Amino acid sequence: MSENAFDLVVIGAGPGGYVAAIRAAQLGMKTAVIEREHLGGICLNWGCIPTKALLRSSEIYTLLHHLDDFGLSAKDISFDVSKIVKRSRAVSAQLAGGVGYLLKKNKVTVIDGEAKLKGGGVVAVAKDGKALPDVKAKHIILATGARARTLPGLEPDGKQVWTYKEAMVPDALPKSLLVVGSGAIGIEFASFYNSLGVKTTVVEVMDRVLPVEDEEISALAAKAFEKQGMSLKTSTTVEKLEKTASHVTATLKSKDGKTETVQVDRVILAVGITGNVENLGLEDVGVKVDRGHVVIDQWCETGVDGVYAIGDLAGPPWLAHKASHEGVLCVEHIAGLKGVHPLNVANIPGCTYCNPQVASIGLSEAAAKAAGHDVNVGRFPFMGNGKAIALGEPEGLIKTVFDSKTGELLGAHMIGAEVTELIQGYSVAKSLETTEAELMHAVFPHPTLSEMMHESVLDAYGRVIHI
Fold first, then answer.
1. Beta bridge partners of 114
2. Element (H, E) at 220
3. Given 11, 18, 206, 359, which is the most exposed site by the fewest CB atoms within 10 A?
4. List 65, 247, 446, 454, catalytic entry
5. Which of 145, 165, 184 is nearest to 323 (CA)?
6. CA-CA distances (angstroms) from residue 365 to 82, 370, 453?
7. Radius of gyration over alpha carbons of the chain, in Å?
């Protein structure tokens, strides 16, 4: 095999691409990754990781203002936003460097440049407009990710109207902020800025914030956000933005047709993402694109022989762990391994790292009923859990949804401290096709927050102990 010929070439080194490349190398494939910008992709550099570092700073700052509750005191509590941002960027850089180490360790060839499909397993590569030698591969995985979606008339300018990139590295905090969109990205930024004292307004076109979550959880989240001082405007659209040198005036229109204006220093657009499908040669080789995403089958195949797509590029849910999982299953399918299973979207947990945290997996109560299930629903409040009270985190809820006939766990929905860690327990349960019986017989350690997961299951069947 020549120097530029590989068993597998992965285009894009985000959480889907680099994981796919490493798994392929483990299986003995000669593998290359072509990346035009950052190893680790958006997730490690401008998404999942650096935002969590920012949110950790705001979480600590919030906690410091409640020290008296814990018998502690401190004077002159303040923050330096430049240091907060610097820490976030350092965390990102450390992990991105780790990806480079892992690729090298697994003998994956890393090619710095932009890739374009030429057909017949050939990939053209260019760097700064200059052509590099073509690369040839038996199999090609597209993992180019996605970028922030924009709306006509609301285009970001990087100065007063931000995307997630600008929102992550502010030179100074604005006094007021409008966040357009209340999905995970929008709510996380709203939570960060609001916690640091920025007057924050969130606009959502749907009738509730965090609209993909269970309605009961959304309502609890909205109550918590408003208690923290956020202004939430649901069933509302942003009609236009008017900018001056010092501020932005947004015209908002409610579902009933009423309009109002809101004047803010900055606007963050968080209205979804669209796949990076441009300039890849997809049309030339026959790869089908639908509404900004590459169309794939259950094995991530595009319909063009030897070409696959994974992660955000291939559509929702737009989650790093979904991309990584698809990368592994795609490679293992290519390798012909036995026991490889298509991805069950119902088993993918979703997490939002706002304050309070929100996490879920599977069907909401309403979706389960709409799908024709007779359901048993269990609930357990944080207030009934000793560990939550000891932590000073008594606000929250864990909710479980079961099929009343089979005992199948259809969904789990949480709001409160550390639920983004707890949800993994239900993820394992769903993957093992666990019923209520196994969950009831499992022993949960005391005192832990995880006990609430057990109690919620018990509540669904009239056996709850601590409420």
1. 126
2. helix 215-227
3. 206
4. 446
5. 145
6. 43, 9, 17
7. 24
Our answer to whether residue 325 is catalytic in this structure is: no
Longest CA–CA span in the chain (Å) reads 69
Helices (H) and strands (E) in the chain, counts: 14, 24
DSSP state of 108: -
* Residue among 377, 358, 359 nearest 368 (CA): 377
What is the pTM (predicted TM-score) of this model? 0.95
The pLDDT value given to residue 1: 55
Does residue 39 contact residue 172 with C-beta atoms inside 8 Å? no
Please, what is the Cα angle at 87 between 82 and 90, to 5 degrees? 125
DSSP structural state of residue 317: S
Hunting for tokens 């790292």 — which residue is that? Answer: 353
User: What is 222-253 written as a DSSP string?
Assistant: HHHHHHTT-EEE-SEEEEEEEE-SS-EEEEEE
**Using a CB cutoff of 8 Å and minimum separation of 24, what contacts does 443-446 make?**
446/386
Q: What angle do helix axes 320-335 and 17-26 make, rounded to 10 degrees?
A: 30
188, with CB counted inside 10 A (0-12, 13-18, 19+), is buried
Residue pLDDT, tens place only, 6-52: 999 999 999 999 999 999 999 999 999 999 998 998 888 888 899 99
Considering only CA atoms, which of 20, 71, 77, 16 is closest in space to residue 47? 16
